[in-house]
Specification:
Blueprint lengths: L1 E7 L7 H16 L2 E7 L5 H12 L5 H25 L4 E4 L6 E3 L8 E4 L2 H8 L3 E5 L2 E4 L4 E4 L5 H12 L3 E6 L20 E3 H9 L7 H10 L3 E5 L7 E4 L9 E5 L2 E5 L7 H10 L8 E3 L2 E5 L5 H12 L7
Helix pairs in contact: 1-3, 2-3, 5-7, 6-7, 8-9
Magnesium ion binds next to loops.
Length: about 325
């Protein structure tokens, strides 16, 4: 059987109802013939709540203890999902990052995965179990300390596990139905992309598109993992992150604070047009800075969302030479 890695983000496992829905989906995917490894995030806003608790105790938590605290979030989800699968008659076992053999360097709060031994994962798969792995965490084998990978790090856990296990697929299941031409919460008519190149996805992620963590895109590119970003709420196909470059000059627009970034192979040719569009809408902006497949500009946080909508309406969908 072929291995499929699925990662479910915080909103997708936010409460017992959502965890039950994920368990149904996992059961059905397994019945379709996959050996399944399921990476989970902490439920809903648990990680923020844990950070809040630490902040009530001290403004300067020891990094080791902060990692001990934060890794508890994913541990809750993994155990509950395992219980939900047992309830459905599906054999399943949950592992922390350390138990799964996810080895990292020693940097608390922003560790890098150095190797995945994955012995217990493979063993449990061969026993016919669904293996649930806590995202965003590992262990530094030198000091035998638990580490975390930085916010959004469960995406990286999924990609690295897919590479280490030689998985046939790596699905990132989230609360939107794929990667869009802009954040669909800001731009309601943003379009879902069928596919996006690693380079464009990395540029969008670096510029604030939360849908994939930058480091997971670098891992996918370096290890040749095709990532399928899709909704955990529907069965619709999502977006494939692959080697294939786009034909369109502009692939997408990301924003972070007051900085907007246009991403795509031909965005350098859109600088004048972007500037006139903003001017026509009375939005003042800083200089447009072009750099290998991206153009960045500053508009100030208060105009950011309207500027993204304005640029999206005027630039997305243009063909080369238009
Ligand atoms: P998860 O909890 O599943 O990891 P995240 O909140 O980290 O999910 O990422 C999903 C969010 O990314 C979406 O809810 C959406 O608002 C945001 N997002 C930003 N830019 C984009 C984009 N270009 N395409 C899709 N989603 C985007
Ligand atoms: N729970 C962690 C976070 O909120 C990791 C993740 O969800 O990927 O950042
Ligand atoms: Mg995320």
């Amino acid at each position: 059987m072929s291995i499929l890695v699925q990662k479910y983000g915080g909103t997708s496992v936010a409460d017992p109802t959502r965890i039950s829905a994920v368990a149904d989906r996992v059961r059905d995917t397994r019945a379709a013939g996959y050996d399944l490894v399921v990476v989970v995030s902490a439920m809903g806003h648990t990680t923020d709540q844990l950070l809040g608790l630490a902040a009530e105790i001290t403004i300067n938590p020891p990094p080791r203890e902060l990692d001990m605290l934060l890794t508890a979030g994913e541990r809750i989800t993994m155990a509950l999902l395992a219980m939900a699968l047992h309830e459905r008659g599906v054999p399943a076992v949950s592992y922390t990052g350390s138990q799964a053999g996810i080895l990292t360097d020693s940097s608390h709060g922003g560790a890098r995965i150095t190797r995945i031994t994955g012995e217990r994962v493979r063993e449990s798969l061969s026993e016919g179990k669904v293996v649930i792995v806590a995202g965003f965490q590992g262990v530094d084998p030198e000091r035998r300390e638990v580490t975390t990978l930085g916010r959004g790090g469960s995406d990286t856990t999924a990609v690295e596990l897919a590479a280490a296990l030689g998985a046939e697929g790596c699905e990132i299941l989230t609360d939107v139905s794929g990667v869009f031409t802009a954040d669909p919460r800001i731009v309601p008519d943003a379009r879902k992309l069928e596919s996006i190149s690693y380079a464009d996805m990395l540029a969008l992620a670096d510029a604030g598109a939360m849908v994939l963590k930058s480091h997971s895109v670098e891992s996918a590119r370096d290890r040749g993992v095709v990532v399928h970003v899709r909704s955990s709420f529907t069965d619709d196909p999502g977006t494939l992150v692959t080697d294939d470059a786009s034909d369109a000059p502009l692939v997408g627009i990301a924003h972070d604070g007051g900085t907007i970034t246009l991403v795509g192979p031909g965005v350098a040719g859109l600088v004048d047009r972007a500037s006139s569009l903003l001017g026509a809408h009375g939005i003042t902006h800083g200089p447009l800075v072009a750099d290998a497949g991206k153009v960045a500009l500053e508009v100030g946080p208060e105009h950011c969302e309207s500027a993204v909508r304005c640029l999206h309406a005027g630039l997305v969908g243009l063909e080369v030479g238009q």
